[in-house]
Amino acid sequence: MRKRFMLVVMKSDATQSEIERVLEKIEHLGFCAKTLDGSSRTSIDITDGNGAVDAALFENLAGVAETVRLPSPYKLASSQTLRKKSVIVIGNERIGGDALAIIAGVCAVETREQVFSVAETVKESGAKFFRGGAFKPRTSPYAFQGLGEEGLQILAEVRARFGLHIVTEAMDNEQVELVEKYADIIQIGTRNMQNFSLLKRVGKSKLPILLKRGMSATLEEFLLAAEYIMAEGNENVILCERGIRTFSNHARNTLDLSIVPAVQKLSHLPLIVDPSHGTGKNFMVTPMARASVAAGADGLLIEMHPQPETARSDGAQALLPEQYLELVEQVKAIHKVLSPLSV
Ligand code: PEP
Ligand code: MN
Question: Does the pLDDT of residue 341 top 80, yes or no?
């Protein structure tokens, strides 16, 4: 059997000379080309050669619609497998599709008062999802590690009182069962994106999974992490871009917004953006939230605190409630421009 490297899909109105240009390029690179005439458009299989084929050499040629790497490293997460976008249903709410999902709340559950006052603001904004960490992945073992089950109980009270769906993190396999009792969506944090046994465990959960991008993960590694969860039977995965490590030091992380159109092209999974951890600075959160929605994100994850200077974690990036309410107004307006029928 021939080894297939890549499929070059031509636009439906590609001309014969544009197709020939692609064929010449393939042969020039030392590969074989096989033309597949579909009913509406032509595709060209690149086969039998040495080394890898660089997609960039074809993507910008006239008449080319897209390139598809073969075999695709991820299957269930790939847009090749499911042509339509996935919509994750949580109660009466949805993540993905036309709606803009806003997941807002606190970084860490600290006290009932802190959480309830922020939940009040989340409810007022019209958002349907409340986030808060009961188990906190902290860089230092001496930093506040979260309230544990007591924090989960406070989150359950928020759901009962405000009708908000709860998003909270499980950091290891042992915590998953407990978190499942309280959460509506389980978050897997950036440091755990390649904790494969944890990914497999939440792949067996009935709850949707919010998977944060590893801080040095490529898009392929990110989608393969989603694949781990899906391969265990849980197809309800929400991707979350939360910034990556780069040489830039003006922000806590570099929020990689070009991943939004890249994911839309390669995967059917919804993608939300977290400009709070993505920037780490209060004054950067709202501009980057606006940019995320403008880029086509399916939602946002936002942290706030009633008194950021007293926060036990991530105070520098926490928005004040009034700043958050303004952010929501602004992003809703941007989203309306992009999907006028959804609001
Ligand atoms: C969080 O969302 O609370 C968190 C710890 O984020 P990350 O895993 O992206 O650092
Ligand atoms: Mn945080």
Answer: no
Q: Among residues 228, 237, 224, which one has the least CA distance to residue 198?
A: 228
Cβ of 212 below 6 Å from ligand 1:
yes
Distance (angstroms) between ligand 1 centre and the Cα of 234 equals 22
Residue 288 near residue 278 (C-beta atoms within 8 A): yes
Can you tell me which atom of ligand 1 is nearest the CA of 108?
3
Does the C-beta of 137 come closer than 6 Å to ligand 1? yes
Give which of 27, 1, 7 is closest to 71, Cα–Cα: 7
Cis peptide before 208 (omega within 30 of 0): no
Task: Answer for the pair 68, 9: CB distance below 8 angstroms, yes or no.
Answer: yes
What is the percent of the chain where pLDDT is above 70? 99
Ligand 1 centroid distance, CA of 30 (Å): 46
301: enclosing H helix or E strand: strand 299-303
Ligand 1 pocket member 213 (CB < 6 A): no
Q: Which two tokens stand for residue 82?
A: 């499911």
Contact residues for 39 (Cβ-Cβ < 8 A; gap 6+):
none
pLDDT, tens only, 233-243? 999 999 999 99
